[in-house]
């Protein structure tokens, strides 16, 4: 094995939702130097990227695990409190890992080092990882719900042209608990919903209501969901006209077909339109909307919140985390493609 080319290499970043592109940066630094210093942006710095960046401790732990898996020693972890960190004055570093978008920052660091009479750092440029759709894999795209940590799209191309039919196996998985339940009397849904709403911190997180009673209860509480799905049914019984959700509260209204036990391309398309729009939207489903959260979680940003009723019990809150997205993808992979 060839000896390392450099003595001490630096790499810095936010490392939010540690993905394959991050692993490429870490691997390049470990392979190039006898010691790799990894500088992770502080919570204060990371907050400038928005409210949904992971806490510092979570990002630190993820990088620590990744480094242990890549190489058990020859690295150290540090907190990055400013844009350039210690690189301009670092007395022993001789290399810096950069990406195409951060190379200019590396060049500015070397300009500062030259002004101080220090030897410039060798810039080790690591190419971007590409997503399945050809775009650059990034934490921002992952937070937006565009792709997973490996760049794969959450929505499979086959689903856009074929019905998915629920199987016994998929139905069993759907029964497994997922989310946070809020109990309350069935004839007073506002009780459970009120407790749920108290836990929400919106931070521009989309709120998605699934079900007529759920949507109507939120509207009666003065809360307009960003997206609401209704089918005119409760417990598979048609609602009276006065009990139906009016589209007057929404800026846009769409209709979609999705029979019971199926997910259709028509439903998927209209959910995409509703989720990608910048207006509140009501989706009126001809059939049943019960399975729609499986698609909604896959297209929602990581900050998304989906709320639906539990007959006889109350309401359920599900957050669109990476774990929830993985769960929905596993369940959908158990459906039959018709």
Any chance you could write out the topology, listing elements then pairs?
Blueprint: E1 6-13, H1 20-32, E2 33-41, H2 43-46, H3 56-70, E3 75-80, E4 95-98, H4 103-115, E5 122-125, H5 139-143, E6 164-165, H6 168-174, E7 180-183, H7 189-199, E8 207-210, H8 212-220, E9 227-230, E10 233-234, E11 237-238, E12 252-258, E13 262-263, H9 265-276, E14 281-287, H10 292-299, E15 305-310, E16 314-319, H11 322-333, E17 336-337
Parallel strand pairs: 1-2, 1-4, 2-3, 4-5, 8-9, 8-15, 9-14, 12-14
Antiparallel strand pairs: 6-13, 6-17, 7-16, 10-11, 15-16
Helix pairs in contact: 9-10, 10-11
Report on this model:
The chain has a seven-stranded mixed beta sheet, sandwiched between helices. Strands 3-2-1-4-5 form a five-stranded parallel beta sheet, sandwiched between helices. Strands 13-6-17 form a three-stranded antiparallel beta sheet. Helix 4 links the parallel strand 4 (95-98) and strand 5. With 338 residues, it is of the alpha/beta class. It folds into two domains: 6-143, Rossmann fold; 157-337, no CATH class. The N and C termini lie far apart (53 Å). The chain has eleven helices and 17 strands. Helix 9 crosses helix 10 and helix 10 crosses helix 11 (322-333).
Features:
alpha/beta, Rossmann fold, 7-stranded mixed sheet, 5-stranded parallel sheet, 17 strands, 32% helix
Instruction: Count up the helices.
Output: 11
Structural class from helices and strands?
alpha/beta
- The coarse overall form would be elongated
- Widest sheet: strand order? 7-16-15-8-9-14-12
Low-confidence runs of at least 5 consecutive residues: none
Q: Summarize the amount of helix as a percent range.
A: 25-40%
């Amino acid at each position: 094995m060839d000896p390392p080319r450099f003595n001490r290499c630096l790499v810095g970043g936010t490392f939010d939702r540690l993905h394959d592109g991050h692993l490429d940066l870490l691997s390049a630094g470990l392979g190039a130097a006898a010691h790799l210093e990894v500088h992770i942006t502080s919570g204060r710095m990371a907050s400038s990227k928005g409210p949904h960046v992971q806490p510092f401790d979570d990002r630190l732990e993820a990088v620590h695990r990744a480094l242990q898996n890549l190489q058990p020693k020859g690295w150290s972890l540090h907190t990055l409190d400013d844009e350039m960190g210690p690189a301009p004055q670092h007395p022993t570093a001789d290399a810096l890992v950069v990406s195409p978008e951060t190379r200019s920052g590396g060049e500015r660091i070397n300009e500062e080092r030259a002004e101080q009479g220090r030897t410039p750092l060798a810039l080790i440029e690591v190419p971007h990882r590409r997503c399945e759709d050809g775009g650059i894999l990034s934490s921002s795209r992952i937070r937006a719900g565009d792709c997973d940590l490996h760049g794969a799209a959450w929505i499979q191309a086959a689903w856009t042209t074929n019905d998915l039919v629920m199987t016994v196996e998929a139905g069993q998985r759907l029964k497994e608990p997922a989310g946070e339940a809020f109990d309350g009397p069935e004839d007073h849904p506002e009780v459970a919903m009120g407790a749920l709403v108290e836990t929400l911190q919106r931070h521009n997180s989309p709120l998605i209501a699934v079900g007529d009673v759920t949507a109507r209860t939120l509207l009666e509480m003065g809360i307009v969901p960003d997206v609401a799905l209704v089918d005119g049914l409760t417990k598979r019984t048609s609602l009276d006209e006065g009990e139906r959700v009016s589209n007057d509260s929404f800026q846009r209204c769409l209709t979609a077909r999705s029979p019971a036990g199926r997910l259709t391309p028509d439903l998927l398309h209209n959910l995409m339109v509703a989720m990608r729009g910048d207006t509140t939207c009501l989706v009126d489903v001809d059939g049943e909307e019960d399975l729609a959260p499986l698609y909604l979680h896959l297209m929602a940003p990581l900050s998304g919140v989906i709320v639906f009723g539990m007959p006889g019990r109350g309401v359920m809150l599900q957050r669109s985390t990476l774990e929830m997205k993985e769960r929905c993808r596993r369940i959908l992979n158990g459906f039959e493609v018709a």
